[in-house]
Structure formats: structure tokens, C-alpha cells
Specification:
Blueprint (H helix, E strand, L loop, with lengths): L4 H8 L3 H6 L1 H6 L5 H13 L4 H7 L5 H16 L7
Helix pairs in contact: 5-6
Length: about 80
Amino acid sequence: MTRTPEGAAGVLSPEGPIQKTGEAGLISLPKGDPDKLRIALRLRQETTMTLAWVAQRLHMGTRTHLAHLLYWRERDKKKKPRERR
């Protein structure tokens, strides 16, 4: 597990928006963009970087906004569709 910003940059490098357009690509995307959220989730799983660092690096607003987005993504993922009667 990576513990430094330099190591986290290695996790970021193969990702789509960063690879295609660099830092400008992240800035131009909305804070809750699915690509940014996917990258943030990968950073949280593969590094020890804080939510504040991830939110700042990916231009996603505050750490609490990022936590909110990650919570809802996981909640929707676990939610099972109801059966209609």
C-alpha cells in the first residue's frame, strides 16, 4: 500500500482523464464526475492518502463532499432491487 503522494501519483497515472488531458482534464470535469469518483475509490483502496488529499488532488471539493459521494456509491452498489408483486 502506497503511503506517499509520489506513490499515489503512480496509481493516478494510468487513469483516463489524467492520462488524456492532464491536470486540466480534472479541473474541467464536475466535482462528482463518475471518472473522478472511480479514481478516488481506487486511491482509497490502494493508498493511505487521506480524503482531504484525494479531494484536493482530484479537484472534487471538500473531503466531506467526497465522503458523501463515496458513501452513496457504495450504498447504491449494495442496494438490491425490490421485487414487484
